[in-house]
Write a sequence for this structure.
């Protein structure tokens, strides 16, 4: 196996910076983002049908053009304090991969922000200190006036530990 | 560019022959039995007919005999597709009126070369 | 054309595998019929021969040499039967059946991307040849008279018979082919041409003398060109230089080899007798890919949703009465059309259970021989249709039950004789519809299951305490336990009774169950009951709290208003309802569905539903409409949820869960086996 080329160590800066196209939104006055390619659509909030025995952050399922789609409260998932849903509350419908299957799920966010392209140099690995369980953050984008936490959508669905 | 009819109850083989012929630019019709081939032949005149020998219902040789009775097919080239050609089979094929035969397995080039022998 | 021919071949290979599977089935059943001297005799042999021939030919065309070799060897022996050169013996039929297994394995290997090693195949084929070898061999190829050493220049005389044109062979084309071999000097002989008035345009009066010269010229090459017309013409080939060899090639070809026997022409009688017992598979059917059917099912599902949406508009009541009447009529029509469309599509996905049953004649035959038991297999309800997905999961459990019957159920001929039974044991497999289920039974007239032995064994295994009295349904409860087997000798045929619990588990996983009926000395009947999986079901909408749920109509027995005087408490916790002669457990559906705050009210109704053949009563707030619902799986985007069999979209666009009453019953009872029903 020693004749294989060297695989660069993970976690370091990518050798050639590549930009990230993100859909961003707000949760608890913080800005978050997800890979735009994973976003199927954005909807307003509608009450889901609660699923018996589901984890607390999964609020239930809704009907999206004939598909039965689970909805997760992202605040609860990230262990942020809960907030009443209001006029700006939106649901971002994502294509995620969980337990070796592709699925569609929606996450509830406080308000939508924008679609932005973040240059590669601005991307950094997330800080590793975290006392509150697992981190769903994939990367941090540092721009001159703000910071965007980029989430790994494939981890939103369920506990990695489960 | 000839109009060819292939007759074989085995779908896979029939399509194999058809695709080889189509690739060479011929126009191909398919029949899955001797009986349906005969029905089609009564209203359509093909330049060449290729038929398998062993088919349920009407077998290849019977089909040849019946085709030869149709005025339009008195001297149309009709080839029999078969796995081997011993003299006995050969006699039977000629007696029924077949023009010639093609031995299976064939490769497409072989098929096309043989077809050339009977088409201008 | 963007696809290469080899790409097309790969696509068609799949088709070839399907055809060969059918061919193998025909081969096998034909051979079995011949062995038992049933079946149409000459017709069966023809069918069997043709099946082998097709597989051989197809395999050759697709380059699967080991398969075409097998096919060729089997075809040879079958040809001997067909031409009455030999009469089939038991040994020959047995080796042909072995050949079927070889073919099956070879095809499976190819499907998986590999192939059986040719050495083993050749060894088996040699065996077949040896068996055949006691009989005069098949005609060998003609000995072509060797021409002289290929000369570079040949003189060819081509004298076609007048009727040559009727075979579709045009002399001009042949001459053209000839001139492609080398330099040709062609002289036409007009001597046989009659006067103009006497010419028949369909006859050929011409002959030709050709001198052919070239590096590629050889007698063999010339013969090949004229191969098709050698019986329609006189052909003479002579080298121009050196001594003329002077052999008349045409004459040599006419000389018949030593062993030639004409095919016996099937007489009218055997042709008339051909139809008995032969399944007519080819008439009016096409193969449809399962993915196409699924697509169609989705479309029908959307149609059902649309239709129910329109139903909601009707309820709004804001149109004038005449328009409403029209709308209602239209909706009624739509509903009927949708229903018949749905039924037709469902039928597309159904296959006859014969697909599963057809492996049993061979299995029973081989197993019976292996165990030294005489068995007759009866099969009923071959045409019973079941959903394709159910069929696939039914196969293995059924095989296990049949093996069990053969191995443990049926006695040896001696024991049977001593017991006054016929020496030939009977195994009967049946399939039929019952309610919304498919029932598949395996029945034997063997020794039956001894209840005392079962109880004894249960005590041995610790399933029953020494002093505990056995339950009513002892046999059923215990024989499906893992590791249970009352057989004194464990044969390696059906294992250590390990299979029965797996059978029950698999059937239960499909939402069905297994039942046993047995009489000592007379026989045993094991029946599997499976729900027909439907993607569109008739449902009863109910309200529990603020949400609507759907209960499949087929699961509902009846609904009653709760009369408090009929309610009694069991062990202080469980409530039971006295309905006529039954005690039905009452279940707070709201609690089961996770609504902790749900409270029973005076208007609450109890819906009595099926759950493992022991009904339960679900407390609900209101009965809403009955309607068809499209079942959507929760597992697509979420996960399996205990107690729910799926979800559906209602007319108003909201999601409603479909309840799985059997699962709810089990959840509430706590034990999967349901052996301790309240």
């Amino acid at each position: 196996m020693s004749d294989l080329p060297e695989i660069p160590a993970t976690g370091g800066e990518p050798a050639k910076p590549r930009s990230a196209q993100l859909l961003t939104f707000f949760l608890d006055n913080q800005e978050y983002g997800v890979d735009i390619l994973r976003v199927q659509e954005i909807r307003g909030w509608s009450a889901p049908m609660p699923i018996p025995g589901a984890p607390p952050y999964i609020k239930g399922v809704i009907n999206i053009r004939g598909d039965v789609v689970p909805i997760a409260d992202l605040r609860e998932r990230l262990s942020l304090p809960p907030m009443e849903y209001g006029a700006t509350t939106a649901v971002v419908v994502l294509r995620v991969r969980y337990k070796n299957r592709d699925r569609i799920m929606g996450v509830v966010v406080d308000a939508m922000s924008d679609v932005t392209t973040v240059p590669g140099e601005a991307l950094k690995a997330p800080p590793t200190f975290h006392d509150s369980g697992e981190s769903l953050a994939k990367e941090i984008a540092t721009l001159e006036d703000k910071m965007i936490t980029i989430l790994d959508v494939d981890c939103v669905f369920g506990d990695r530990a489960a | 560019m000839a109009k060819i009819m292939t007759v074989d109850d085995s779908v896979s083989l029939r399509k194999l022959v058809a695709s080889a012929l189509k690739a060479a630019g011929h126009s191909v019709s398919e029949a899955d039995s001797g009986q349906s081939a005969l029905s089609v032949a009564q209203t359509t005149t093909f330049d060449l007919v290729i038929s398998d020998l062993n088919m349920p219902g009407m077998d290849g040789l019977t089909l040849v005999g019946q085709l030869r009775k149709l005025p339009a097919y008195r001297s149309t080239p009709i080839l029999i597709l078969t796995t081997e050609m011993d003299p006995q089979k050969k006699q039977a094929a000629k007696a029924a009126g077949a023009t010639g035969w093609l031995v299976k397995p064939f490769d497409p080039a072989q098929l096309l070369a043989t077809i050339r022998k009977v088409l201008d | 054309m963007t696809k290469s021919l080899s790409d097309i071949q790969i696509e068609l290979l799949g088709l070839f595998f399907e055809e060969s599977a059918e061919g193998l089935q025909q081969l096998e059943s034909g051979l079995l019929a011949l062995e038992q001297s049933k079946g149409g005799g000459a017709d069966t042999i023809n069918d069997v021969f043709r099946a082998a021939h097709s597989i051989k030919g197809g395999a050759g065309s697709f380059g699967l040499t080991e398969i075409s070799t097998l096919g060729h060897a089997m075809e040879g022996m079958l040809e001997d039967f067909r031409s009455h050169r030999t009469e089939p013996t038991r040994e020959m039929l047995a080796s042909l059946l072995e050949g079927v297994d070889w073919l099956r394995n070879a095809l499976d290997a190819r499907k998986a991307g590999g192939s059986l090693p040719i050495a083993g195949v050749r060894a088996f084929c040699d065996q077949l040849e040896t068996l055949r070898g006691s009989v005069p061999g098949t005609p060998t190829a003609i000995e072509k008279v060797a021409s002289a050493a290929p000369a570079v220049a040949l003189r060819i005389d081509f004298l076609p018979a007048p009727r040559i044109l009727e075979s579709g062979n045009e002399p001009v084309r042949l001459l053209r082919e000839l001139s492609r071999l080398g330099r040709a000097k062609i002289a036409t002989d007009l001597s046989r041409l009659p006067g103009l008035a006497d010419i028949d345009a369909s006859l050929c009066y011409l002959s030709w003398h050709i001198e052919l010269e070239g590096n590629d010229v050889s007698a063999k090459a010339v013969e090949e060109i004229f191969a098709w017309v050698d019986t329609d013409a006189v052909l003479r080939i002579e080298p121009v230089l050196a001594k003329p060899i002077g052999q008349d090639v045409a004459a040599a070809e006419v000389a018949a080899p030593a062993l030639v026997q004409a095919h016996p022409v099937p007489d009218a009688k055997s042709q008339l007798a051909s139809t008995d017992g032969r399944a007519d598979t080819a008439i009016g059917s096409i193969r449809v890919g399962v993915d196409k059917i699924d697509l169609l099912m989705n479309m029908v599902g959307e149609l059902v949703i649309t239709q129910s949406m329109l139903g909601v508009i009707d309820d709004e009541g804001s149109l004038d009465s005449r328009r409403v009447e029209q709308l209602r009529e239209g909706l009624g029509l739509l509903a009927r059309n949708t229903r018949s469309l749905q039924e037709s599509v469902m039928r597309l996905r159904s296959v006859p259970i014969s697909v599963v049953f057809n492996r049993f004649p061979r299995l029973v035959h081989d197993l019976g021989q292996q165990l030294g038991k005489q068995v007759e297999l009866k099969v009923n309800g071959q045409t019973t249709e079941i959903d394709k997905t159910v069929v696939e999961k039914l196969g293995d459990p059924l095989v296990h039950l049949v093996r069990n019957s053969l191995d443990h159920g049926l006695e040896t001929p001696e024991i049977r004789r001593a017991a006054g039974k016929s020496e030939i044991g009977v195994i009967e497999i049946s399939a039929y519809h019952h309610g919304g289920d498919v029932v598949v039974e395996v029945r034997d007239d063997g020794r039956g299951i001894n209840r005392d032995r079962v109880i004894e064994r249960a005590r041995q295994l610790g399933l029953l305490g020494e002093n505990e009295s056995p339950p009513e349904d002892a046999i059923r409860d215990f024989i499906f336990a893992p590791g249970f087997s009352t057989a004194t000798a464990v044969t390696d045929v059906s294992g250590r009774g390990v299979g029965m619990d797996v059978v029950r588990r698999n059937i239960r996983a499909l939402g069905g169950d297994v039942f046993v009926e047995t009489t000592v000395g007379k026989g045993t009947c094991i029946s599997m009951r499976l729900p027909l999986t439907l993607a569109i079901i008739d449902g009863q909408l109910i309200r529990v709290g603020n949400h609507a749920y759907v209960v499949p109509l087929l699961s509902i027995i009846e609904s009653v208003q709760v009369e408090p005087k009929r309610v009694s408490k069991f062990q202080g916790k469980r409530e039971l309802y006295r309905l006529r002669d039954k005690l039905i457990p009452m279940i707070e559906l709201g609690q089961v569905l996770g609504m902790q705050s749900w409270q029973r009210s005076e208007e609450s109704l109890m819906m009595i539903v099926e759950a493992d053949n022991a009904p339960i009563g679900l407390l609900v707030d209101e009965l809403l409409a009955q309607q068809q619902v499209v079942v959507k799986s929760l597992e697509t985007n979420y996960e399996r949820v205990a107690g729910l069999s799926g979800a559906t979209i209602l007319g108003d666009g909201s999601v409603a869960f479909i309840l799985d009453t059997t699962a709810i019953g089990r959840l509430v009872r706590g034990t999967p086996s349901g052996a301790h029903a309240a």
About this structure: The mean pLDDT of chain B is 86.
